[in-house]
Amino acid sequence: MGIFASKKGTMNIYIYVIVGMSASFLLCVATVLFYLKYKKDILQKQYQLKTAEVQYQKDLLKAVINSQEEERKRIGMDLHDEVGSTLSSLRLLVDTVLAQKDKEGSLTSNSLQFKKTIDNIVVKVRNISHNLSPILTGAYEFYDALLDFCDDINQTSKIRIHTTIQEDAEKVQLEHFTKLSLYRVIAELVNNTLKHAEAQNIHIDFSLINKEYKIDYKDDGKGISLNEKSIKKGIGFKNIESRLDSIDAKYSMDSKIGEGFQMNIQLSLMN
């Protein structure tokens, strides 16, 4: 009996030890699982906060850009309605005076130059008005506005802009804000080339590849050093960067001294 009782007591001790070790193991597992879940919740909250902050920054950026566009639109309309109509009236008056002078046989080259100058001012005011508030109501209108802008450059400068629009890209339907942002970016790139590149040609290609809308811009100018801090701090580059960021576009630049400038813009159409 004594030996049996002793063995039973020993067995109970083993059971208590096993139960205790099992409980400790389960407690450790529970602690680890709790810690992992806690860490996951923290990371998820941090991700949500970061996502919310990024979205807030995008919304704020869009609001600022929309405000700027509204002001541009107002100025463009004022130019068209007020200055444009006044110049048109002045042109009619000059036509009347010149017609009368012609009958009297006293028409001079200065008078004709005066008329030509007014005509040039009317065209420039119209172009400025359109550039301030381009009509971008559909896919074709988007390209029409860009082509009009390029034609104006071709007619008033020595540089030549060559555009290629792939058939699939021509049918792409973009949101108004996206179209306006891309229009502004291209205009800014062209103006930068005109001011600084000493280029003879600009090539702008539009394509659609695997749901990716692409714009390839390239000039044959003197090129720039992309390592220069002044380039990325410039107002023009910041405007380009902010507008592309506002529409979630990916972009890259490539340029070397003496080898021109190139920018590739890529916009996903998956969503």
Please supply descriptive tags for the structure shown above:
69% helix; alpha+beta; 7 helices; 271 residues; Heat Shock Protein 90; elongated
Question: How many domains would you count in the coordinates?
Answer: 2
Query: pLDDT average, as an integer?
Result: 78
What is the molecular shape? elongated
CATH topology of the largest domain: Heat Shock Protein 90
Say how many strands there are: 5
Reading the helices and strands in chain order gives HHHEHHEEHHEE
**What's the number of helices?**
7
What share of the residues does DSSP label as strand, in percent? Answer: 5-15%
Structural class designation: alpha+beta
CATH class of the largest domain: Alpha Beta
Helical content class: 55-70%
The largest sheet is: 5 strands, mixed
- Per CATH, which architecture of the largest domain? 2-Layer Sandwich
CATH homologous superfamily caption of the largest domain: Histidine kinase-like ATPase, C-terminal domain
Query: Taking strands numbered 1, 2, ... along the chain, how are they ordered across the largest sheet?
Result: 1-2-3-5-4
State the end-to-end CA separation. Answer: 81 Å
Radius of gyration, in Å, reads 34 Å
Topology:
Layout: H1 2-104, H2 109-132, H3 139-156, E1 160-165, H4 167-170, H5 176-197, E2 201-209, E3 212-219, H6 229-233, H7 235-246, E4 250-255, E5 261-268
Parallel strand pairs: 1-2
Antiparallel strand pairs: 2-3, 3-5, 4-5
